[in-house]
Amino acid sequence: MSKHLISSADLSRAEVEDILETAASMHDLQRREVKKVPTLRGRTIINFFFEDSTRTRSSFEIAGKWMSADTINLSAKGSSTSKGESLRDTAMTVDAMAVDALVIRHNASGACHQVAQWVRCSVINAGDGTHEHPTQALLDAYTLRTRLGDLDGKHIVIVGDLTHSRVFRSNVITLKTLGARVTVVAPPTLMPSGIGAWSAADGFSTSWDLDAVLGGDDPVDAVMMLRVQRERMSGGYFPTAREYTVGYGLTRDRLDRLVARNADVLVLHPGPMNRGLEIAPEAADAPQSVVLDQVSAGVAVRMAVLYHLLAGDDAPATTATTEGVVR
Amino acid sequence: MTCPDLSEPATSSSTPADARDVMTEGDISRALRRIGHEILERNKGSEGLVLLGIPSRGVPLARRLAACIEDVEGAEIPVGELDITLHRDDLRRHPVRTAHRSRIPAAGIDDKVVVLVDDVLYSGRTIRAALDALSELGRPRAVRLAVLVDRGHRELPIRADHVGKNLPTSRDERVHVRVAELDGIDVVRISGGEGR
């Protein structure tokens, strides 16, 4: 595995499967009385969040702590960034403290890629602008695999604001890496331009009509609802919230029709949910909903990612490795 | 930066041409039966016994040992597997290994007599990691160690309670344990070293 995790496309199928396998053993740890292993003792991980976050940040922090790494949280507010320090200077300052990994969330797409060019430590993308969020895609894949088994040929539908969604971008890549078929649904105004070029690839299709996809000939194994990002909704993408719900929300009625066709269909949402907007409360709390499984998988998957990036001899600052017979 | 392929463990599935057999299928099965009896004798019966195999080849060996004991006692012996990857002390010296799930019998290990089962005892570092992993899962009444082959060269103060065969080796030799469940054949071979 490479030193950084910037994009879901950095991971081969074998690497994704290794991470998910490791995540399963980490998940067992979560149910134990003593939730701690010594694996990353002596490693330091900095969570640098330039954007607000509850679950990603806390799960990265817990993941590091349960593996005995020292984790430190920084946010833009309250750090030198608020005094006008540039991203490059901030990153290099932190790197100079000999940390092992920098987990970054930033509102600019490509920020993590850029930081990775400047620092020696590992860089993990915890969401950059509207680009990618690879650990979210891994935890979604983990949740799906726990319920559906092998994802080869499974049909996953992703619905919502695709234009601004890093979750969607990473998910499409990871799901396709694992052999799933993905249909993405969005109103025309929130369909990314150029997505037509993606559709060429097999197992990937796009639609403007949610009901046609959910009721179509191709049975649906899981529906992933994306959050309507109110903070990015100033562009007049749809007339009213009500109209969005009617066209693209997972309403009670749509859920009932889905369940009638496949009682084991799964409902995912990366959170935080806008109940009553993109997902009805009945759908969010339905037995088919695995929203809390996703949160619980988040810690296990992030432990696995930290483990695969930091535990081995490819880790940073070990340029002078001692070669020789070890076993 | 990409990392090299995962290095094969000492018990790789290809055997060099200079390998010679040191235990046959019959030897292995007799050794396991004897160890089964020793465990029972030491424990004064099968009360509270739990066998935990250390992956990969310790796991089928633990299952067979349990079957041997069940043959004698008639009672069912809980068998599990203990993955020690997260507790290894050489993680930083190798490319990352995938961690696997441990499977611990439902009744747990608290106040049980846990017998760790592995194929080869060498430096003792695997067992040290296993003891650490075990302490996170509970508090057994006692922990014992059964191995098919003890090849010496300990680097830690660890010894086995039950040994299938003591095999004096030099450090540049390699011991290959094959089990039918994983490799299709039961055999222990030695290769390398100053051809004897």
TrEMBL record, chain A:
L-aspartate binds at K83, R166, R227. One of its GO terms (molecular function) is amino acid binding. It is an enzyme of class 2 (transferase). GO terms for biological process: 'de novo' pyrimidine nucleobase biosynthetic process; 'de novo' UMP biosynthetic process; amino acid metabolic process. Pathway: Pyrimidine metabolism; UMP biosynthesis via de novo pathway; (S)-dihydroorotate from bicarbonate: step 2/3. Residues 3-145 form the Aspartate/ornithine carbamoyltransferase carbamoyl-P binding domain. Its EC number is 2.1.3.2. Carbamoyl phosphate binds at R55, T56, R105, H133, Q136, G271, P272. It catalyses: carbamoyl phosphate + L-aspartate = N-carbamoyl-L-aspartate + phosphate + H(+). Keywords: Pyrimidine biosynthesis, Transferase. GO terms for cellular component: cytosol. Residues 152-309 form the Aspartate/ornithine carbamoyltransferase Asp/Orn-binding domain. HAMAP family: Asp_carb_tr. Belongs to the aspartate/ornithine carbamoyltransferase superfamily. ATCase family. Catalyzes the condensation of carbamoyl phosphate and aspartate to form carbamoyl aspartate and inorganic phosphate, the committed step in the de novo pyrimidine nucleotide biosynthesis pathway. Heterododecamer (2C3:3R2) of six catalytic PyrB chains organized as two trimers (C3), and six regulatory PyrI chains organized as three dimers (R2). This is Aspartate carbamoyltransferase. The lineage of its organism: Bacteria, Bacillati, Actinomycetota, Actinomycetes, Micrococcales. The gene is pyrB.
From TrEMBL, chain B:
Its EC number is 2.4.2.9. This is Bifunctional protein PyrR. It catalyses: UMP + diphosphate = 5-phospho-alpha-D-ribose 1-diphosphate + uracil. Residues 1-23 are annotated as: Disordered. Keywords: Glycosyltransferase, Transcription, Transcription regulation, Transferase. It comes from Humibacillus xanthopallidus. Belongs to the purine/pyrimidine phosphoribosyltransferase family. PyrR subfamily. It comes from the Bacteria. It is an enzyme of class 2 (transferase). A motif (PRPP-binding) lies at residues 114-126. Residues 31-163 form the Phosphoribosyltransferase domain. GO terms for molecular function: uracil phosphoribosyltransferase activity. Regulates the transcription of the pyrimidine nucleotide (pyr) operon in response to exogenous pyrimidines. Also displays a weak uracil phosphoribosyltransferase activity which is not physiologically significant. GO terms for biological process: regulation of DNA-templated transcription.
